Amino acid sequence: MRGIRSNRKGYDEARAEAARLIASWEEQVQVAATPADRAPRCRLAAQVPEASEAMPRHGVRDFLDGLDTWTLGALLTWTVDADWGSGVLTLEVPDLVAERLLSPVSSLPCSPAAAAPDLPERDRGPGREPGIVRPGVFDDTPVFDRRPVTLDHLRALRILGTGADGLYLVFSASGGAEVLPLDTIEKRLAKGWLGVLIAGARDLPGSVLGPQEPEHGPEPEAGEAQLSGRGQGVHDPDFGEGLGLAEGTRRTLRQTYATEDRNLNLRLLALARGAHDLRSLDAERPGGLPVAVWHGLLTEDRLSLAPFRQPGSDRWRSGSGLPLGPLAAVQLYTTNASPLIEGKGHSPLCRHANERAVVAGDDLLTVADLIVRTDFDWCSKCGGYAMRRLSDTQLSYYRAAHQLHDIKRRLDCGTGIPDTETSPVIARLDELAAWQSGEDADWCSSDSSQWQDTIRELRRRATRTHAVTGPGEPAS
């Protein structure tokens, strides 16, 4: 009809006849398809092809790239089983579809499948076909309706997915909620573990991650481990900032260059912070968490523990005997914490460490261990360990303890100041007396009592004598 001008005689009649012809063809197709749908279907075995080198999907090549739209529709509609280990899909299709899939022009290699007894309809449940990736395994089905993940599901994820997440939040009756690498989940499944996937790193909402672009400014130079806050006054509002979670996020952003990688790394960082022991994130395979994420989880800067050491005769090096409180359980990771094992202890981030990451064989200490032991043999470059970054509560207490220690040290100096400078010191002591932990478990009654006793004694001394120097001096 496109070749006939509309002003030619008989044009309208020819157009109407063409429409009737097309409609008759549609009727013939429907008539032919209806009995085919009711007819017994034949089973085909389709071999999943290798990933295509052309036209990668989302930047990651997978086998779907080589299939046309019709074949994709056939897979979605008629796949009834999948063996992801061998890469074979089983389809039950009408004869017309089978004829096309078996033809030489098909983009999916297929062959007649071995005969298998038909299961009654009631037996065709998820328990009888574990290889099928049904709703409730990887999608956002409500948690109450999630289905247990299987080894077949994870094999499907590696084949079908555009890149499996490095970490997953999982739940099981045996372990509760955990953050685990995909490889660790596979090993547990092989031993009979039963659990569900709650979320992968890419599932986390960006609204809770904060800024996803690095702040403009020079990258701090990498060097030897040093005390955090060196050169800063303890009353500086940013004292110890480099030890906290916020600086960890900034560090990850600064060390990640591609926008897509930054989005993923921030989500990996947020998920990894939920792991109780970072050694559980070691999948014992290459290609674990990016180094930028490890720098967001850990810091090589040292804590200044002077406020928590016991008082001594040297007034410049003497401690204040303050309780460790929320800092007692802060984790430290090292390659070797035993003086009986040959070799120095290194930070997992040290260039002398083999992995540049926390691995299952590393040793785990706490700040409470560090303050009572003197037999460590640390690397002189990295300081021997990397510390897990401080939470907001831990960082707040670290600052408060240093300010209290500074006031005690100035009172111990006994150099004297005018009466007008006593009131600010007493006011600051009152503020420190009101400090409260955001987590009750971090601030036990004995620690709280010791903290208050120290403040009362310093307040009494400040009121009685004017031997107080000026504002806080730089930490050393």
Keyword list:
single chain; four-stranded antiparallel sheet; 476 residues
Summarize the structure.
The chain is α+β, with helices and mostly antiparallel strands and 476 residues long. It is built from 12 helices and 11 strands.
* Largest sheet data: 4 strands, antiparallel
C-alpha end-to-end distance: 91 Å
Q: Uncertain segments of ≥5 residues (pLDDT<50)?
A: 53-58, 116-128
Number of strands: 11
Mean pLDDT: 81
Helix content: 25-40%
Residue share in β-strands: 5-15%
Strand order, main sheet: write it out.
2-3-1-4
* Class based on secondary structure composition and strand pairing: alpha+beta
**Shape field:** elongated
Order of helices and strands: HEHEEHEHEEHEHHHEEEHEHHH
Radius of gyration: 33 Å
Figure out the total of helices.
Answer: 12
Protein described:
- About 4% of the residues have low confidence.
- Strand 2 and strand 3 form a beta hairpin.
- Helix content is 33%, strand content 11%.
- The strands form three sheets. Strands 2-3-1-4 form a four-stranded antiparallel sheet. The protein has a four-stranded antiparallel sheet with strand order 8-11-9-10.
- Helix 6 runs antiparallel to helix 8, helix 10 runs parallel beside helix 12 and helix 11 runs antiparallel to helix 12.
- The chain contains twelve helices and eleven strands.
- The protein has 476 residues and is of the alpha+beta class.
